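Item description
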Amino acid sequence: LGNVAISGGTLTLNATGDGIQADGDLTISGGTFHVKTNGGHTTALTDDSASCKGFKAGGALTVTGGTLTVDSADDALHANADVTIAGGTLTLAAGDDGVHADNDLVIGTKGASSTSTPRINITASYEGLEGTTVTVYSGDIDVAASDDGVNAASSTLGERSDKYAISIAGGDLYIDAGSDGLDSNNDINITGGKVEVYGADAMMDAAIDYDGTFTLSGGTLFGAGMEPSAGTQAYIAVGETSPSGGMGGGPNGQGGGQGMTPPGDANGSADGNRPTPPSFSGSTDGTTGTTRPTKPSGGNTNGGQQGGAPANRESALGIKEGSVITVQDSSGKTLYTATALGSMSSVIFSSADIKEGETYTVLVDGTSVGTAEAKLGTTDSSSNSTFKPGQGGQPNQNGSQATVGSFKDVPQNSWFASAVQYVTSSSLMNGTSTTAFSPNATMSRGMLMTVLARYAGESTEGGTVWYEKGMNWAKNKGISDGSAPNRNITREQLAAMLYRYAGEPDGAADLSAYADAGSVSAYAEKAVQWCVKNGILTGKTSSTLAPKATATRAECAAMLQRFASL
């Protein structure tokens, strides 16, 4: 009922509940641990499952030494306050998060020059590293996650908070994520270290995703997705940056980003399966010779997709799994080499070797796919990359176009522009700031309940938490059971709530044209059929519905607009 401190010994623990648990602080400074909880990370959990975390602290969790090997059905390391990992060797396989802090997660020691400590290898997880803030000072860190690799978020603070931040000042991070690699619900700051990050390439998900400001002022970065928006170190970007696309890739389609459905998702939609630990083979960049994890496979049935990852679009740069990507300067000198883990529609690279105003070339399997002039991040997050035509690939075209209202991330010619105009002018949804709508961000179940309550003319102001009024209204009207308000809403859950709001009318569409129609949860079958029949929901592609994909703010806005038009 108090604190736990362990500084040595050898402990082998097989627990149905938590492996080591303290109501207060938990401190590990030495020892060798083999901890397995509730059968390990492949065990299916339900909402009423007992806590079965590897190391759990009601207060702060601190690791300064020791060897920790954890295979847990829930989080491997979890604290209701801060987590600090300043030393030790950790090998973690988790059914949920690898390392989770309700408050701040700090890895390494400030000012440390070595990347040798701590050593963290997350072989399987839903989200790898999660905290309100995630700060890395030093260490050698490998993350394999079926959803986000590093996530700055908090269920307590909700979808948006200026407290969220990912800060990387040192260390060596290799991130392999099924959804976003670096995902901050506000800011990202990179001032040092080395980061090689892979994520989904599915319009709404990418290796780098943020809703605030991405400041790049040092270190080495290789990845794809949204470009830096500020900083003092130059970078290059070739291809389609700033995940934009849309529902099905155009104004009439329905699709977008889809992370794996969270464990124990509401309404019985979770498949309960877990990713298996990845194998270790191959080398990434030719500079360290370090072997790295491959993408998690198995243990997930989200539309038959591997490891919970979205179905990637075809890369305009021709990058696919196994492609060798090389960055060269104007003299032909190779600055970086990496082996892609999947489709990449853009390449973003920065290091001390990149000089503002100079031109660099990106090659895929030895063939040039684009050249870019190095620049500083001095524009907003929706700016276009500098791209020279005729070199392969295609640029993002959003940078200089007119936008909807004050939202810099909603170009007037985007597929979601009219939907954003509708929901904001109708006071159903607000921007995440005065200048951003964040169309690619996720939408929580509680937010949709609140939006539908507003649509019905109900007041949603007040309450002990921001979603309380909307949640209670939805429960009273039979639109939702009110569970899991902070979890991301899926496409089939969104369809189900709209269907119930409409009074569960007759009308069913034939879904046989969609290969994944069988993955629609039983509770949502009629709802999905009705929404498809009435044009509210269409396929992510011509042959897939992606019912368990996470819905984005832009998707929700579009479906609400179509629903209202009925």
Q: What stands out?
A: The two ends are 57 Å apart (CA to CA).
